[in-house]
Specification:
The protein has about 325 residues and is mainly alpha-helical. It contains 11 helices and 7 strands. The protein has 3 domains: about 80 residues, no CATH class; about 210 residues, no CATH class; about 30 residues, no CATH class. The protein is globular, with a radius of gyration of 21 Å.
């Protein structure tokens, strides 16, 4: 038996997929815990008496730590394990990343708003307008920033380097199943109100985010949709994954207490309404003509060559630059 082959893939001359994943998890966990411990001591000294402010700062800082560590470790792993540039991580600041993020954020808000409008039309929801105060507007601005941080941290966990490495190792179907399942289980500690339907809905949301990333080739759209999705629920005064924030918002929505339809105390994500919407969105993302082709397997980033214009169905764009694939040994460009 060749023990060397247990570690290295001779075809690609690099660590096998499983060992790359384990190495990344260990390093990311170690540095996250180290930096988080130092930050906790720092926050304790700055806010020794304000418990609520302390908890809010700790939550936000820990999320930022996760983002910084996962991006740093992802870039390191890409360069050392995959021999790929940093921009392939999916969060490059080149091109129209801010515009893509904003579009995704608007789509996320639009998805939740559409569902609420349908429920209102059916008589299961009512909208109430409140004149916004200056402090309320300021809180909403801070909430947008907070939801972007939350969304980015979760997307870097579930659709960052680990997601891409699994794609290259076990393929998209198995990767989507594993990551969406773990994404659902990740939300279990949020509340005791979560039931099977809510768990399935969150799993479908994770699947939607994964598919959207495969069709976009960038995480900025996914981060935007994720953040807008969460922000919209809080904007309308609704629980988000079972978590309720005591915010004064300009618009509040009162849902009929029909747990199987509107989710009950868990929020929209626990009801059939969001299930139907998610199924429709999954179909749209999967079969839409626009976006990167699944057949291109662009996430493998092998033998790509620059092209001025897209000429083939599997051509794709990253940061405003077109690329063509040399598929199945075909060297034609």
């Amino acid at each position: 038996m060749n023990w060397h082959n247990l570690w290295f893939d001779p075809g690609n001359n690099r660590l096998r997929c499983g060992w790359r994943v384990i190495s990344y998890i260990c390093l990311a966990t170690f540095f996250s815990m180290l930096i988080a411990s130092l930050l906790l001591v720092f926050v304790q000294r700055i806010f020794p008496h304000s418990l609520q402010l302390k908890n809010d700062c700790i939550e936000l800082l820990l999320r930022i730590v996760v983002i910084v560590v996962l991006i740093s470790m992802g870039v390191w792993a890409l360069r050392n394990f995959e021999h790929l540039p940093a921009r392939t991580l999916g969060v490059s600041l080149r091109g129209r990343w801010a515009q893509t993020l904003a579009i995704g954020f608007s789509i996320g808000i639009g998805i939740i708003t559409l569902l609420l409008l349908v429920l209102r039309t059916l008589g299961y929801a009512s909208f109430n307008w409140h004149h916004p105060t200056q402090s309320a507007i300021g809180m909403l601005v801070l909430l947008i920033f907070g939801m972007l941080i939350v969304a980015m941290s979760e997307e870097m966990i579930f659709h960052g380097y680990l997601f891409q490495t699994l794609l290259r190792g076990i393929g998209p179907l198995a990767t989507l199943f594993i990551t969406s399942t773990v994404f659902a289980l990740f939300h279990l500690p949020n509340t005791s109100q979560l039931h099977l339907l809510g768990l399935v809905n969150i799993g479908m949301a994770g699947l939607l985010f994964g598919l959207l990333y495969l069709r976009q080739g960038t995480l900025w759209m996914v981060i935007g949709v994720h953040a807008g999705w969460d922000f919209a629920q809080l904007l309308f005064g609704l629980p988000s994954s079972g978590i309720t924030f005591p915010l004064v918002t300009p618009i509040t929505v009162k849902l009929a207490f029909i747990p199987w339809l509107t989710g009950g105390e868990y929020g929209l994500e626990g009801g059939v309404g969001i299930s139907v919407l998610l199924l429709g969105l999954l179909a749209i993302v999967t079969y839409a003509r626009r976006g990167l082709s699944f057949e291109s397997r662009w996430w493998e980033w092998r033998e790509l060559s620059k092209a001025l214009t897209p000429a083939l169905p599997w051509d794709f764009t990253v940061d405003g630059r077109y690329y063509q694939w040399k598929l199945l040994g075909n060297s034609e460009e």
